[in-house]
């Protein structure tokens, strides 16, 4: 019986988490940028908030995924 910890499925799942985190940050950063342009802010306030929310959301997703896989 193969070792569950070293299976290719786990490797692919964990290696894709980085891309998913980048996706969260890119999507929320883009939305923040578009809102900055729409509201004509001179400083990228909503872009920074969008990126911060993207980082937070990606970390929550990462923690939930890792906890689900450890059960």
Measured distance between first and last alpha carbons: 19 Å
Largest β-sheet summary? none
Low-confidence stretches: none
- The helix/strand class is mainly alpha
Task: Give the percentage of residues in beta strands.
Answer: under 5%
Task: Characterize the structure shown.
The model has no long low-confidence stretch (mean pLDDT 86). This protein has 71 residues and is mainly α. The longest helix has 32 residues, at 8-39. The two termini are 19 Å apart. Helix 1 runs antiparallel to helix 2. The chain has helices at residues 8-39, 45-70. The chain contains 2 helices and no strands. The relative contact order is 0.14.
Topology:
Elements lengths: L7 H32 L5 H26 L1
Give a brief outline of the structure:
The protein is 82% helix and 0% strand.
Highlighted features:
single chain, 71 residues, mainly alpha, 0% strand
């Amino acid at each position: 019986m193969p070792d569950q910890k070293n299976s290719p499925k786990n490797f692919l799942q964990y290696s894709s988490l980085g891309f998913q985190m980048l996706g969260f940050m890119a999507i929320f950063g883009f939305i923040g940028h578009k809102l900055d342009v729409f509201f004509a802010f001179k400083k990228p306030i909503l872009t920074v908030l969008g990126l911060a929310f993207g980082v937070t959301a990606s970390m929550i997703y990462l923690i939930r995924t890792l906890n689900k896989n450890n059960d």
